[in-house]
Batch of 2 targets.
Target 1
Amino acid sequence: MLTLKEYLQQAAEEKKAIGHFNISNWEGIKALTEVCQESGAPIIMGVSQGEAGFIGISEIAEIVADIRRNKNIPLFLNADHFKDMDKVELAAKAGFDSILFDAATDNLMDNIGKTRRAGELIKSINKEILTEGELGYIGVGSEVRENVPAGAVITEEQMITVEQAREFTEKTGVNMIGPAVGNIHGIVKGYTEKLNFKRIKQLREGVNAYLVLHGASGIDDKSLKKAVASGMSVVHVNTELRLAWKNALEKYMQDNPSVVAPYKILEPAVEELKKVIKHKLEVFGWVNESNS
Ligand SMILES: [Zn+2]
């Protein structure tokens, strides 16, 4: 099996993107494992600091290691938007495949300083762990929003330039960057995220790091395909999964008020999660939906 770094290289060469899907419970783990097994596509399981706080940093690392060992599937684990150094250290020691240290709310110089220190800490624990930095504020949290978050980057003038991204990448040594290119975390009701494909292409060509698209929930398939073709090598999806999980759970409990077995109540949620994940993998170039 290839390493995450090798899969990233393959994705970049073949103009595909690796899907990054957040989980915080067993239904998410089960859905990602089954889709990974059924499709053979590499998948990154993401846990934010909040999600990791619920499921446990060492616990999720052990579970993914166990799945990979026993099923021999390309399922990887990312610490998503970690902000505290002690949590970064725990994730690195627990064996995460990649860690995103997020200081995007700071100014560029402070962001560079903090991200570099996080990267040094991570690589001192295990130099095989890939590091990611976040550039430009796009809101925090995977939720359905009424409005664009205050201070989020939306105009071309505010978006991350090649020069900024190059300086950031060279000074921090990160393997991946998540630049603000018109994307917003979560789903904003009544607002269409306009991705700047020209900027994505410029960043891909001008910066020595893989590009990660955050906040892909709510972005239409055509735009996502174009973002991948323009050079995004990883795409993050969370809010759409949360919605699929919650809707499936609510529907099953309404339809079956007498059922109390958790594994029966939760099974439809797993199936709905799998549908979203499979569809995204098709959009990102890994599976042909008509064959799966
Ligand atoms: Zn994100």
Target 2
Amino acid sequence: MKAIRFRLPGGLELLENVEVPDPGEPQPGEVRVRVHASSLNYHDLNVVLGQMRSADGRIPMSDGAGVVEAVGAGVTEFVPGDAVVSTFFPQWLEGDAQVADFATTPGDGVDGFACEVVVRPATAFTHAPRGYSHAEAATLTTAGVTAWRALIVNGGLKAGESVLVLGTGGVSIFALQLADAMGATVIATSSSDDKLVRCRELGADEVINYRTEPEWGKRVLQLTNGRGVDHVVEVGGPGTLGQSIRAARVGGHIALIGVLTGVGGEVPTAMLMRKQQRLQGLIVGSRRHQMDFVRALEVAKLKPVIDRSFPLEKIADAFRVQQAGGHFGKIVLEFESARA
Ligand SMILES: NC(=O)c1ccc[n+]([C@@H]2O[C@H](COP(=O)([O-])OP(=O)(O)OC[C@H]3O[C@@H](n4cnc5c(N)ncnc54)[C@H](OP(=O)(O)O)[C@@H]3O)[C@@H](O)[C@H]2O)c1
């Protein structure tokens, strides 16, 4: 079967299209899944660029969606033909956060979904939402579940609250859609006025260009009559956290998700303390979070925003588009089987 491998020290030019042995039939408790789609995350990009201490020859990509071809003895949750989507932490099934690294994450610590067939424990998948294409389902594993956990699980978002989302990447656009669907007021930022128009079309009530308005935290305060927002979906890290603390209300919640501006730096701790805000880090979520999210998507009839789709073998081109930053929402890979 076809697969992609990356080579250390990393780099898009080192991604290889290879033939690897078929993984065979599932053992007890396992499922065999034909993978039809994956989606790109910033994490996957860091892995293939050699920035995540992953192994030489690893098959990349954390997200995978496809169809169950066979189930091993004892598997009752799935039957052949079911549409499924992978989980980010295959061993974190439910309960409190248990994981602080990527040792068990497909496409990083273990082989991922840039391949045509996998055999994995059944608990490494959930059902995909009814009515979703495989490409749409593949956007849920990382970006979707992260937005869900940030706002709904950790944030306890309620109708009437306000949410600030930073930028227009995969996580932020999911968060915008979820917040809007939940009846929240949404403020979105972007470096691009064209993307901000699209944010408004998707449901953002107010928009700010963070390039032309570097003091966007102050602008958020103005837009909320000096109160600040209830929740911030913080994907920037050290370069944006100061403005996010400014933008959040006293007692507000900042979901610390991303490190787009770097992995360490100055944080205005005194302001965070004075404003008595809750700054909560998170990495994606559990299988239970994903199951709850899938159920919510079916009821709310929300569909992810897919910017572009590439065939599996053009994975390096897909990452180049992500690196250039022109995308809005998700970039996906669709496999030959999905296009047949
Ligand atoms: N903790 C977790 O569980 C988790 C899960 C998923 C992702 N992440 C992290 O979250 C971040 C975003 O991931 P992603 O997959 O959504 O990335 P992505 O799809 O590649 O999105 C990147 C977007 O972020 C925006 N951006 C870049 N610099 C920014 C800045 N200084 N201020 C505001 N926005 C900025 C840009 O939007 P515009 O073009 O509109 O300016 C860019 O298009 C990454 O750091 C990633 O590692 C964490």
